[in-house]
Design goal:
The complex is a heterodimer of chains A (83) and B (405). Chain A has three helices and no strands. With 83 residues, chain A is mostly helical. Chain B has 18 helices and no strands. With 405 residues, chain B is mainly alpha-helical. The chains are: A mainly alpha (83), B mainly alpha (405).
Chain lengths: 83, 405
């Protein structure tokens, strides 16, 4: 079998071989908790910099939206894992 | 004097052209998630790209062949199709990431969603390529790209502990989240060793009519230019480590990254971040669109060149037009630019052996290089980094997706 065929074969089967390596619900929940804490810290830092006048309002609005979306997605994921 | 000017311009190109959507996003994410721990990945990627760029320039100067041209001639059209497809696919995704980066910069200052900017950005890229010559595209973008040096200023103002950064030049094992760590490592290497960089460089050397007298210039530009460029990427990682990692912030959206400069530089930090993102991504998009056209035109033996009128190289011009159009459409769909960028970079690392091994074979062929064939150190370094990056990518990419990130 040629070098290229071997390479393509490894590429094709590696996801299947690794399918058994999915992380446990506990560690997935822990990741979600970290994500939520990260969004809270982002909101805090943005507020702090905004109060110093370092950020334009148009940008602060975008970060606030991103934080809200991020939090919602993390909550949804947490609920899905807990089921 | 002329050579000194070439070296200076080459250094500017190296510094101004190194940072783009890929290196910015991967370095910021890595710094936020793992502190200084992944500095070694930038160092490894920078060493690899410096060797590759030097080889591509040497090949052009000595043999007067561009890379695709030599590959097709040396291996035949059937074999050439494999690296051609790999590089075009990866470059297309990176082009879309860059258009996404420029669009995001515009979103950050206007509040209008990035996807609505994609058509205008694509049109601006196409117009510039259509109406201007190679020197303006390459040197103009790189000169403006010097604004990315602000990341070095930011990292210094944050009092980054340089000894700690230096201590992480050697690889270390992750303390937690191994899958993400290795995925980030290969994404960083992929971002640094983007094939477009050395393919574009080889075409540029031919456009600038380099000969063997340029070998010294080539060595300087490749070594120092890429070295300085890598330093800017390290500064992004260090800044992210200082601002985000210390607060437990992980980067999940592009919108978070400007805080990296706003913290040390205040209002100007935000403005300079947007300028850096927009200019760096715009410059990279110009180069990648051209590189896709160079690759296909040189590979199939069509007339090519950014210094000739588009009508005289119609197929070449058509290729970059289609590439820009399709990449713009991909961003218009609203695909998350950060995820697209990180995925493209990991895919680049995965494809490295396909793009690098044929180059190494040519670089060791005296028929092309005469007495200027590769030294064994260059062969060993590039082969080692490429194969390791590919193997790690092969394991880390599926693990990262199974982990749900």
């Amino acid at each position: 079998m040629g070098y290229w065929r071997c390479y393509l074969l490894i590429l094709a089967i590696s996801p299947a071989l690794l399918a058994g390596c999915q992380s446990s619900p506990e560690s997935q929940l822990q990741k979600v908790q970290q994500e939520l804490a990260s969004w809270d810290a982002t909101a805090r830092l943005t507020r702090e910099l905004s109060q110093r006048g370092a950020l334009p309002p148009v940008y602060v609005r975008q970060v606030s939206e991103a934080v809200e979306q991020g939090r919602n997605q993390a909550h949804q994921r947490a609920a899905k894992i807990s089921k | 004097m002329n050579k000194l000017l070439e070296i200076a311009l080459g250094l500017v190109t190296g510094i101004g052209g190194f940072l783009e959507a890929g290196s910015l996003a991967t370095s910021a994410q890595a710094g936020a998630a793992f502190g200084f721990q992944l500095v070694w990945a930038i160092a490894l990627g920078t060493i690899c790209i410096a060797f590759l760029v030097e080889m591509a320039g040497r090949l052009a100067a000595v043999s007067k062949h561009t890379l695709p041209d030599a590959m097709r001639e040396r291996f035949g059209i059937r074999f050439f199709t494999v690296p051609l497809v790999a590089v075009v696919l990866v470059s297309f995704l990176v082009l879309a990431s860059e258009i996404g980066g420029v669009s995001l910069a515009l979103q950050l200052i206007t509040g209008i969603r990035f996807q609505w900017w994609a058509p205008a950005v694509a049109l601006a890229i196409w117009l510039l390529l259509w109406a201007h010559n190679f020197n303006l595209v390459e040197k103009g973008a790189s000169l403006l790209g010097l604004v990315t040096l602000v990341f070095v200023v930011g990292a210094l103002k944050l009092h980054t502990p340089l000894s700690e950064v230096g201590a992480h030049l050697l690889p270390s094992m992750p303390q937690q989240d191994s899958a993400k760590y290795w995925f980030m490592a290969v994404s960083i290497i992929g971002a640094s060793v983007s094939p477009y960089l050395f393919y574009f460089y080889s075409a540029g050397a031919i456009e600038d009519e380099w000969d063997e007298g340029y070998l010294g210039v080539n060595r300087f530009v490749a070594g120092l230019g890429m070295g300085f460029g890598g330093t800017v990427a390290v500064a992004v990682l260090a800044g992210a480590a200082m601002v985000f990692h210390s607060r437990g912030i992980q980067i999940d959206r592009y919108e978070q990254i400007p805080l990296l400069l706003s913290q040390p530089l205040g209002h100007w930090g935000f403005i300079l971040f947007v300028a850096s993102l927009g200019i760096a991504c715009f410059g990279a998009a110009l180069e990648i669109a051209l590189q896709i056209a160079y690759l296909i035109a040189q590979g199939f033996g069509w007339k090519w060149g950014e210094n000739i009128r588009p009508g005289q190289a119609a197929r070449f011009s058509l290729v970059y037009m289609i590439a820009i159009l399709l990449a713009g459409l991909l961003i218009l769909t609203g695909l998350d630019p950060l995820k697209l960028t990180i995925f493209s970079m990991a895919l680049t690392a995965l494809s490295l052996p396909v793009t690098v091994v044929p180059l190494l074979i040519i670089m060791n062929d005296p028929e092309y290089l005469g007495e200027n064939v590769n030294h064994w150190i260059a062969n060993a370094a590039v082969l080692f980094i490429s194969v390791i990056a590919c193997v790690v990518a092969l394991v880390a990419i599926p693990l990262q997706f199974l982990g749900g990130s």
